[in-house]
Write a structure and sequence with these properties.
Blueprint: H1 3-10, H2 15-18, H3 28-45, H4 59-62, H5 64-69, H6 73-85, E1 93-94, E2 111-116, E3 119-125, H7 130-133, E4 141-145, E5 148-149, H8 150-157, H9 167-179, E6 186-191, E7 197-202, E8 215-220, E9 224-229, H10 237-248, E10 254-258, H11 268-275, E11 283-290, E12 300-306, E13 318-322, H12 329-339, E14 344-347, E15 356-361, E16 368-377, E17 391-392, H13 404-417
Length: about 425
């Protein structure tokens, strides 16, 4: 681990406040030095050095002219963003407040789609989102972004440093285009299931409506309880809220844990606090791996455990609901509860965010950068980003009823109860 990353990890708790107070040096010498330090640190610590394409090996050469031309914090951040974009990895990003940045997925995504011969087939729409309110629905096709045909827009979003025909790269570009930039309205041409086309504009400020508070909870017929997290597993206060809700569910016959609104991921302490109420013994929930641990022929591996906590362990059956907006630490909770055989996971593929992310700050320009520094696996050896729910529910091919995943989850829970 380089000194730059080690220092960043030590400062992580106060980085958000310190960033506003640090003196920033945007001189040419500082920009060149920091970009070189960024590339070296990435090369030393990136969690996936074995990937076939390694665009970072030529970043210094290919981006030198852009580094020299970038004379503002925003334009310099954009250079680093462009380099990281070549990974096609939503877990790699610049944290600096670049007003023109591409917004991260799934945090700001409200449309999930897959490219086909007719454009991009909408396979899911986020509840309470601008896209839902605009009438975009499953089965629609997005055929243009702005005035640009979809295939051309995808090609423009990708970079020449990597294979632009790779399906995963094109999926990344598509989802990024659908999420849009922070300072721009989104303009789409949408073809409905009836073949009619319409032009839609989605407002600049994204609005995702959800109930207030860290979570929502309640009871369903048949003695079933449910708890849904409101994108809150990054807030340690959520643990206390979960404890309160679980106390109210203590006498239920089963519990549905809804992780379909955690697109921003979260913190391990919160996840461990939640999962610790559902086990009676200490159990492994995920496997960590750091390749190139000091040398290219040394690696570090360990299993992370959940420890029981609280006045009681909830021991009735549990079903976990997941979908495309189950991101990062939410994905970790899903694989963990499955690994510990403490829940049946029901849902669609998740966000597929790879690895555990570390943040660090470039010392002279003050730019904050994040990328994966640890590989994460289910305890059975499946990479977290490739893992699928055991009860896999296909994305609907047509507009769905009110909440098909909840209905499937209830059915699975009733099966476990009986």
């Amino acid at each position: 681990m380089t000194a730059l990353l080690a220092a960043a990890l030590a400062m992580a708790g106060c980085a958000a406040h310190a960033a506003d107070l640090r003196p920033v040096d945007l001189s040419e010498a500082a920009r060149v030095a920091d970009f070189s330090a960024f590339v070296q640190d990435f090369d030393d610590n990136y969690a996936y050095p074995e990937r076939a394409e390694k665009p970072w090996l030529t970043w210094n050469e290919r981006y030198r002219s852009a580094v020299l031309a970038a004379q503002s914090a925003e334009s310099y951040a954009a250079v680093i963003e462009a380099a990281l974009d070549e990974l096609h990895d939503f877990h790699a990003e610049v944290r600096a407040h670049n007003p023109h940045r591409w917004l991260p997925v799934p945090t700001f995504a409200d449309i999930w789609a897959s490219e086909d011969a007719n454009g991009a087939a909408v396979i899911a729409v986020r509840r309470g989102s601008d896209a839902e309110r605009a009438g975009i629905s499953v089965g629609d096709h997005i055929t243009a972004v702005g005035n640009v045909p979809l295939s051309a827009a995808i090609a423009a979003r990708l970079t020449p440093g990597v294979d632009n025909h790779d399906r995963k790269a094109r999926d990344w570009a598509l989802l990024s285009l659908l999420a849009g930039r922070a300072d721009e309205e989104r303009h789409f041409t949408v073809r409905g299931r009836d073949g009619a086309e319409r032009n839609l504009t989605l407002q600049l400020e994204r609005q995702f409506y959800r109930p207030p508070g860290a979570l929502a909870s309640g009871r369903l017929p048949g003695g079933i309880g449910w708890i849904r997290f409101n994108n809150s597993i990054g807030d340690i206060g959520t643990v206390a809220a979960f404890d309160t809700a679980l106390e109210q569910m203590r006498d239920t016959r089963g519990l549905i844990l809804d992780l379909r609104d955690v697109p921003s991921g979260g913190d391990s302490s919160v996840a461990l606090g939640i999962m610790g109420r559902l086990v009676k013994t200490m159990l492994p929930y995920q496997h960590h791996r750091i390749p190139n641990y000091g040398r290219s022929d040394i690696e570090r591996n360990w299993f992370e455990y959940v420890t029981p906590r609280g006045p009681f362990s909830f021991d009735a059956p549990v079903v976990v609901l997941v979908d495309h907006w189950t991101g990062s630490m939410g994905e970790g909770m899903a694989i963990g509860l499955d690994a510990m055989k403490r829940a049946v996971v029901v849902g669609t593929p998740m966000a597929h965010l790879a690895g555990a992310v570390s943040d660090f700050t470039l010392p002279r320009t003050g730019i904050d950068v994040a990328f994966a520094t640890e590989q994460l696996y289910h305890v059975n050896g499946t990479p977290r980003q490739d893992w699928l729910p055991p009860v896999l529910v296909a994305d609907a091919a047509a507009p769905a009823p009110a909440d098909p995943l909840m209905a499937r989850g209830i059915a699975e829970l009733q099966r476990l109860i009986h």
